[in-house]
Amino acid sequence: QVQLVESGGGLVQAGDSLRLSCAASGRTFSSYNVGWFRQAPGKERNFVAVISWSGGRTDYADSVKGRFTIYRENAKNTVYLQMNSLKPEDTATYYCAADERRYGRNWYEYVYWGQGTQVTVSS
User: Fold this and answer.
1) Which residues touch 42 (CB under 8 Å, ≥6 apart)?
2) Phi, psi at 118, each rounded to 5°
3) Cβ distance 60 to 1 under 8 Å?
4) pLDDT by residue (tens digit) across 12-51?
């Protein structure tokens, strides 16, 4: 079992930055691939970014490429999502998810999920 807790969300203005954290407890977190997904009200859950267990591979949705950076500190059992140049369309609840085998863009491939953190970007 892995327990995930997101933090760092908030209300910001367009162009601002935020850093989201995904803190894990439980089994060895360093063996898990971790993804970030987001979901706006009334919309489906969408892929944002993913990082491999070692941190050696990353992948981003086109909509955030060049603005968001995913990275991890396994010694702290934490994965981060640095979000720069935020836009109103980035407004959503952001979730982190973990899986030992899956490394992909499909939310249903991930076993463990956090409760989400709200990001609101005003124009």
Assistant:
1) none
2) -85, 130
3) no
4) 999 999 999 999 987 688 899 999 999 999 999 999 999 9
